[in-house]
Structure formats: structure tokens, C-alpha cells
Amino acid sequence: MKQTRDIFQAIADPTRRQIIGMLAGKTLNVNAIAREFDMTRQAVSLHVQFLNDCGLIVIKQQGRERYCEAKFEKLNEVTDWVNQYRKYWDNKFDALEGYLDKIQKKKK
Fold first, then answer.
1. CATH number, span 7-74
2. Are 28 and 68 in contact (CB under 8 A)?
3. Residues 6 or more apart from 68 whose CB is under 8 A from it?
4. What is the pLDDT of residues 43-95, one digit of tens each?
């Protein structure tokens, strides 16, 4: 059975988050990315491939070099997931605020 990789797995790892941050500003080749980490190029390549598999980046071959480009549309999945809980907590805090206002009015 093939393991599927999703956006949440991608952003769960600090190395992958750092790679995402690096690619947010510009396209980089894998060697340029690997120079920023204290790990083997192969280990960085595995992280890059993971991000590619999740759809957060695309890898384009130019000659002997592989260039990575950000495709952050998939991050909307994370935003949508977070927003559902943001709405929940906003409602809870609004209810708490209403309750506290009610208590303050009774004290006066």
C-alpha cells in the first residue's frame, strides 16, 4: 500500500518548513537549499521530494540542475482547517465576553 503524503505532514517538519520559507522568496536549486542545512544533500533531497509529492513545490530540471519553485496554493488546506477552529473559539470568546459583561452589570 502506497503511503500518501499530505500538507500537514509536510509542514510538521521544521526542516521542510525552513525549505518552504527559503522558496517563498525565490526559486533555488537543490544544492543551494542543501548548503543551508547541516545534513547530507541526500537528506535534503528527500525533504524536497516530500514537498514536491505534497504539491507545495515543483521541481524543474534545467540541464544538470534541479530547481525548486514554490506552489503554495495547497497551503489553503491548512488555512481552511485552522479557520474552522478559529470560528469555534471566536464564538466561545464572544460568549465569555457577553457573560462577563452581564456579571459586571449585575455588580453595578
1. 1.10.10.10
2. yes
3. 19, 23, 27, 28, 29, 30, 33, 48, 51, 52, 57, 58, 59
4. 999 999 999 999 999 999 999 999 999 999 989 999 999 999 999 999 999 99
